[in-house]
Amino acid sequence: MSETLQTTDVAASDADLLGRTAIAVRAAGSALRERFGEVVRYRTREELMRALAANDEMALDILRPRLTRLRPDAGWVEDELDGGALPPGEWWVVDPAEGNVNHLHALPEWAVTATLVRDNQPVLTAVHLPLTGETYTALTGAGAYLDGRPLRVSPTADLGLSIVATSQARPDEDEKVVRRVGSSITAMLFDALVVRTAVPATLHLLNVAAGRIDAFWQFAGARADLLPGALLVTEAGGHISDAEGRPWTPQSESFLAAAPGVHAEAVATLSR
């Protein structure tokens, strides 16, 4: 996958499929919203993991049958921590509760995502934010949208004037990755205007696509974290690569999405 994702002729069936996918993620988001609002303190990690799984299962009970009816022959990926390439053919890559930990702690930064991948290229994606009611969509070759309004990345051409963002390493991450995350944040604190550090990745990437944030980077990202945002950013006119500026694929060890005017500067900062 290069800076600009491969484009194909937009089939009417794909456009219709995107609309139906958006309906599915909204339905799952509505169910999760009903569970949102009360902060529960978990005494053990096992209790927390069970609560996370309960959210995932509720959303998947809605998403899986709806998306399977839309594409009965497509494979199914729902583990948000999985990475790497997929086998040939069509696959649904789903994060039923992106930002699940935030949901359980009554924080507003969470979403429901569904992305159709065809021969390892994201074809369409729908990301729904239940608390705001917003739905972000993208279709290869047809642009990125927020509730039907076109999205465009920032025109900023100076990293020193840029808001940039990253997600922290996941729990139990390899020490080498954790240290790389820390050093990259330090480098960006010197070069960028503002650095935001939070999870989940998808919400930062929505902001890059919408021109609110100028760049986002992450190390050791998973498919479900990055594919929806990668398609949204490229369809909104942004560039994606790994942190060294090389073409990004789901097997890459790092990820960078940026407005074209600051992409090269961001690569230089992250490569120090």
From TrEMBL:
Gene3D superfamilies linked: 3.40.190.80, Fructose-1,6-Bisphosphatase, subunit A, domain 1
Assigned keywords, A-Z: Magnesium, Metal-binding
Keyword Cell inner membrane: no
UniProt key word Metal-binding: yes
A Pfam family recorded for this sequence: Inositol_P
Binding locations of Mg(2+): D95, D225
Position of the signal peptide: none
Cofactor: Mg(2+)
GO biological process per UniProt: inositol metabolic process; signal transduction
GO molecular function, one term: inositol monophosphate 1-phosphatase activity
Highest taxon of source: Bacteria
Protein name (Swiss-Prot/TrEMBL): 3'(2'),5'-bisphosphate nucleotidase CysQ
Organism the protein comes from: Streptomyces auratus AGR0001
